[in-house]
Amino acid sequence: FAGESWVQRFEALEKKWPVHYITKERFHGNNDVFALMGRSLMGAAVLRAQMSHSECHLLTVLSGTDLRRKEGGTRDMLKLWPHVERHMNIDPGPYIKGEVRAATENAPADAPTSWRTLFLANIHLPQLAGADHEVANMLDKHHSTFADELLYHEINSGTLIIGMTSSHAAIRLTQIIMSQYKTKTGKTDYKALLHVGVVNLISATHLEGIDYDQIKNAMQFALSPLLMCSGTFATSLVLDPGKFTFHHAGAILDGMEMYVVESLAVEGR
Q1: Among 2, 58, 237, 246, which one has the highest count of C-beta atoms within 10 angstroms of its own C-beta?
Q2: For the chain, what is the total number of helices (H) and then of strands (E)?
Q3: 199 in Cβ contact with 36 (< 8 Å)
Q4: Which of 140, 118, 110 is nearest to 208 (CA)?
Q5: Is the Cα torsion angle 259, 264, 265, 269 positive or negative in sign?
Q6: Helix, strand or coil, per DSSP, at residue 214
Q7: Residue pair 119/194 in contact by the 8 Å Cβ criterion
Q8: Inter-residue contact 143 to 183 (CB < 8 Å)
Q9: Which of 65, 126, 52 lies closest to 91 in space, CA to CA?
Q10: Distance of alpha carbon 222 from alpha carbon 118, whole angstroms
Q11: Which residues have a Cβ under 8 Å from the Cβ of 227 and sit 6 or more positions away?
């Protein structure tokens, strides 16, 4: 329903307004990136409203004829919108001449790919820099609880990087690890940074990609003992259950926005 010349209209907007990149990684055939895009769009509106103490409204153009739900499509994204009472839809059906055809049911299957969207946490535990086995034990205690969500982990000199399937799971496990570290060492000198991006999940202990490199490089700007996240992660987490507030901390590496996250005390899951 974009109409004619939509590419030219998009490019005109791109020249006039700042562009915020969800990821600068190439598209590798992983369609979950479309779901991430939709989640980021919804979350960006909710986050901006939260920080400006205002209300956000959703306006959609959605057919009343084609009821199929595609990952990352408008109908699929509606389930993320937290304010049902502030949603208005325009059905273009009455304004279209001729037959409106539903989406084909014979779409080609997605080709297998090791690229996927992951919610990453980089946790630095300085008092355990020489005791990676202690960090591994802390993680193992909760492996069964997060077994379906924890797809990646690496431990090196007291730094733990995890890859999860959701922002809520990533921040929950991060909070638990930070709490256990504080109990074990009596210190609050930990640092934690959360990010989301498109990565090449080669194995449960081998990860590659621009967004993976970015969270490692950005760790130098994380502040102890704060829980920090990228803007892209914030736009996802703001849609998750839980009471989270965000404080903008500035922009770093290549325009990456940084936020301080505050939440309720860690509770049993």
Answers
A1: 237
A2: 7, 10
A3: no
A4: 118
A5: negative
A6: helix
A7: yes
A8: no
A9: 65
A10: 20
A11: 171, 174, 175, 178, 192, 194, 260, 261, 262, 263
φ/ψ bin of 59: left (φ > 0), alpha (ψ from -120 to 50), beta (otherwise): beta
Residue with tokens 């060492």: 185
Token output for 113? 């790919």
Q: Which two tokens stand for residue 61?
A: 């153009």
Q: What does the angle CA 253 – CA 254 – CA 260 come to, to the nearest 5 degrees?
A: 50
For 251, the token pair is 């922009």
Q: Which residues pair with 246 in a beta bridge?
A: 261
Q: What is the pLDDT of residues 166-182, one digit of tens each?
A: 999 999 999 999 999 99
**Burial of 177 by CB count in 10 Å (0-12 exposed, 13-18 middle, 19+ buried)?**
buried
Structure tokens at 234: 């914030």
pLDDT tens, residue by residue, 184-240: 999 999 999 999 999 999 999 999 999 999 999 999 999 999 999 999 999 999 998
